[in-house]
Amino acid sequence: QVQLQESGPGLVKPSQTLSLTCTVSGDSISSGGSYWSWIRQRPGKGLEWIGYIYYTGNTYYNPSLESRVTLSVDTAKNQFSLKLIAVTDADTAMYYCARDRTRNWFDPWGQGTQVTVSS
Amino acid sequence: EIVLTQSPDFQSVTPKETVTITCRASQSIGSNLHWYQQKPDQSPNLLIKFASQSISGVPSKFSGSGSGTDFTLTIESLEAEDAATYYCHQSQRFPHTFGGGTKVEIK
User: Fold this and answer.
1) Rounded to an integer, what distance in angstroms lies between the CA atom of residue B53 and that of residue A80?
2) What's the pLDDT at A102?
3) Does the bond joining B95 to the residue before it have cis omega, within 30 degrees of 0?
4) B32: which chain A residues are within 8 Å (Cβ-Cβ)?
5) In this model, does residue A33 exceed pLDDT 90?
6) How far apart are the C-alpha atoms of B15 and A83, rounded to whole Å?
7) Which residues is B5 bridged to in the sheet?
8) Residue B95: which of A63, A96, A104 has the nearest Cβ?
9) Which residue of A has its CA nearest to B86?
10) How far is the alpha carbon of B90 from chain A, nearest alpha carbon, in Å?
11) How far apart are CA A83 and CA A74, in angstroms?
12) Which among A37, A46, A107 has CB closest to B98?
């Protein structure tokens, strides 16, 4: 059974960098069978796709966040990570990682991690 | 980017009723439309892929149809455990986008 688990600080100060890691179990990132995505859900808002990364390091970012986002992958640890710089309170959200099958549907999702931007 | 508009935003139904949720795309997306269920305090769960393809482990009461710009998710014989918010998602064109969600309440 494939499982994803997000981890990282729950509180980030404005203008600082948000860093999250997703640990994958039950599937190997380096197998190349999937892409790996980050998605967020801001309070009272819908879902927003942030971007995906492939095991080779190839990435695609949502243009709305592209200037501030970096995704990276560590195949040895079977993890992928999100960095979002210069955060504001608009970046307060539940952040999910998800397996992105063939760059189509997301399944499964991690349980999510709440990140609050506040001084 | 492709905008997905779901309707209704909210629906309150009695048990055993059938619910139909619609998702309209701002441009044609073929069958590259997927549906998710998000229960309170849980992450989204894939229900239907490619507009109408069922997912292993998902009850057959959930079905999808449509292509191009108009899609529907139908939930038959609603039970209390189906209370959730349902989202559509398109993968036709980057960036991936989601509909605004339809909250289904069981009376």
Assistant:
1) 29
2) 85
3) yes
4) 104
5) no
6) 44
7) B24
8) A63
9) A46
10) 8
11) 14
12) A46
Count Cβ atoms below 10 Å from residue A83 Cβ, excluding itself: 13
Residue among A104, A110, A111 minimizing CB distance to B91:
A104
> Is B98–A48 a contact, with Cβ atoms under 8 angstroms apart?
yes
DSSP three-state, residue A30:
helix
Nearest-Cα distance to chain B for A99, in Å, is 11
pLDDT tens-place string over residues A50-92:
999 999 999 999 999 999 999 999 999 999 999 999 999 999 9
Question: d(Cα A110, Cα A30) in Å, to the nearest integer?
Answer: 19
Please name the residue that has the structure tokens 């710009």: B69
Query: Quick one: which of A88, A87, A73 has its CA closest to A37?
Result: A73
Q: For residues A88 and A55, what is the distance between their CA atoms, to the nearest angstrom?
A: 30
The total number of residues written for chain A in this structure: 119
Question: Please, what is the Cα angle at B57 between B53 and B35, to 5 degrees?
Answer: 45
Provide DSSP, B15-82.
TT--EEEEEEESS--TT-EEEEEE-TTS--EEEEETTTEE-TTS-TTEEEEEETTEEEEEE-S--GGG
Nearest CA-CA distance, residue B88 and chain A, Å: 10
